[in-house]
Amino acid sequence: MKLEDIAGKEYPAKTIFTLSIKALADHFQLHLKKKTLHKMIRKKDIIWILTVPAIWSDAAKRFMRKCAVDVRKT
Prior knowledge:
Strand content: 5-15%
Oligomer: single chain
Low-confidence stretches: none
């Protein structure tokens, strides 16, 4: 599946969703560093939970899970 930006250029949806989830995680970790909490809270101590609407199809839920798992690989 491809997503189109406002200029009409297409990108793989998986890449866009994976990078979006990664950006949220990176922002949170930056916030921890600003508050100097990164000394007390280690990355491995954080358990991420990504919720999706119940009305989504099983295929859409699997897609989001794959994107979230890919974030851990980066």
